[in-house]
Amino acid sequence: QKQRGRSAANEFLNIWGGQYNHTMQTLFALFKKLKLHNAMRLIKDYVSEDLHKYIPRSVPTISELRAAPDSSVKLDNGPPFPSSSGVSNSNNNSTSTAATEAIPSLESLGNIHISTVQRAAESLLEIDYAELENATDGWSPQNRLGQGGFGDVYRGRWKQLDVAIKVMNYRSPNIDQKKVELQQSHNELRYLNSIRHDNIVALYGYSVKGAKPCLVYQLMKGGSLEARLRAHKAQHPQPALTWQQRFSISLGTARGIYFLHTARGAPLIHGDIKPANILLDQCMQPKIGDFGLVREGPKSLDAVVAVNKVFGTKIYLPPEFLNFKQLSTGLDVYSFGIVLLEVFTGRQVTDRVPENETKKNLLDYVKQHWRQ
């Protein structure tokens, strides 16, 4: 690069933040892991002041190191760097932690600033709030697609595109719960912005400078798989999915999960695979949505990590996660197995089957007959 008259450092940072879509906090965490303390000092002005405590207060000179006995001069490496995912490695030696796992979570940093969100959304389009307000006819109730604890989802027409706009209301009065909701929004931005796949919902942009933060997604005109599986019970019944459609939806979902688990150095574990989070386009092709609970798993697909608490939808979670809080890609595989059970039986996992013979739900019923 010097021969071209360019700064090697600038070229590295351009590749780091542009081509690989990493942040300065990620680089700071990597320098911490590699004990490159001078490098940490060089970029300290570009990361949160809360992270400055991880820079050693003093570094002995070469002459001091030469003159002192091996044990008399010690480097102050600072306190342990927090994990972004709240997980710790198990005793399995094959488990390793990726550099990006060392990014402190939003919860550990306290207040969440717009700059934090913008770093997570690097290279993603920031949309003016007024444009989204116009796209939804002033957040008209007629354009509301759904409502939840996190906020509302609206249908909108933006830039000649049909979009789904998630408006974050953070209704919970509990401060800790609000932090969790903010962390989930941050996850959506961070991970959906860094991965692209035909079977993963597309995130078009975000807005954080208006009345409420918003995320803008591709509109999935086919609705959710959950709604289509229950379409015959709806107020306006739709034809049941054909066997070919069920197979195609299952195959596409499997491809999306496989991509999450294998596309990066460390697998991404979705954590909440269920019919409600499998969205369908107008051609009935599936796309996995809702990335609020995504975690980075161990690099080895056979390894597990221990987490602090259980997350996800209980009926879709494997016993080892519910009972022992052991996180691995197997969580998504198990959840997808439950989804397949629902897709090909046409029943909800909580249904009582057969109604006249037993009070067991579908999953318990299948487990019983599987053993037989």
TrEMBL record:
The keyword Kinase applies. Its EC number is 2.7.11.1. Residues 83-96 have a biased composition (Low complexity). This is non-specific serine/threonine protein kinase. GO terms for biological process: antifungal innate immune response; determination of dorsal/ventral asymmetry; larval somatic muscle development; positive regulation of antifungal peptide production; positive regulation of hippo signaling; positive regulation of protein catabolic process; positive regulation of ubiquitin-dependent protein catabolic process; Toll signaling pathway. It comes from Drosophila yakuba. GO terms for cellular component: cytoplasm; plasma membrane. The keyword Transport does not apply. InterPro entries: CR_Ser/Thr_kinase, DEATH-like_dom_sf, Death_dom, Kinase-like_dom_sf, Prot_kinase_dom, Protein_kinase_ATP_BS, Ser-Thr/Tyr_kinase_cat_dom, Ser/Thr_kinase_AS.
